[in-house]
Write a structure and sequence with these properties.
This protein is of the alpha/beta class. The protein contains eight helices and six strands, in the order βααβααβαβαβααβ.
Length: about 190
């Protein structure tokens, strides 16, 4: 069975990891051979999109050249409901945000993804690649010297236990597929 090409992808962040992810997506043979290429958006803070900084303007131009739409948003400042409404407009969300975000941000992003998958924002979200780049956090285990590692385990816990739905939903209903990935780029 062939998985259909998603029609909309949101990449959270455009640092080294997000830019490399975008470049990889648009260079992939299935992207260039698709009858209609999916819409790919990069989530950036409004200040980054509207910047006067020449280097950031060049980066934004590069992202647009690759075919990305610059989507304003702020994963730190916006409410979980606002994030869920935004995420629900996309079929796939790929987390490539900065590892230096405030504690709890990755868990809040994941909760918003699960809300979006449950129908908030358009019932489109079906796959999530959480910010899990670089390490197998299950192997690292809880209580490491890095608080971020424990947060990544909490993210995995939310995703692994999502079958425990709210009252009234059937078990297994509207679950989000997710993929953890290891990569030398963006390693914690």
């Amino acid at each position: 069975m062939t998985t259909p090409t998603p029609q909309s992808i949101l990449i959270i962040g455009a640092g080294d990891l997000g830019t490399a992810g975008l470049e990889g997506l648009v260079q992939h043979p299935s992207y260039s051979s698709a009858a209609q290429n999916p819409k790919i958006a990069i989530l950036l803070r409004p200040a980054t999109i509207n910047t006067a900084d020449a280097a950031k303007q060049r980066q934004n131009a590069h992202l647009r050249t690759l075919g990305a739409v610059l989507q304003p948003g702020d994963v730190v400042a916006e409410s979980e409901a606002d994030r869920a409404a935004l995420f629900g407009r996309f079929e796939v969300v790929i987390g490539c945000s900065d590892m230096g975000l405030p504690a709890g941000t990755q868990v809040r992003i994941t909760r918003a993804v699960l809300l979006a998958a449950a129908g908030v924002g358009g019932k489109r979200l079906t796959r999530y690649f959480p910010w899990q780049w670089g390490l197998d956090y299950d192997v690292v285990g809880e209580g490491s010297a890095q608080d971020l590692f424990d947060e990544q385990l909490a993210v995995r816990g939310l995703l692994q236990n999502q079958h425990r739905k709210q009252k009234g939903e059937k078990e297994g209903e509207r679950e989000t597929e997710w993929t953890g990935s290891s990569s030398a780029r963006g390693s914690s």
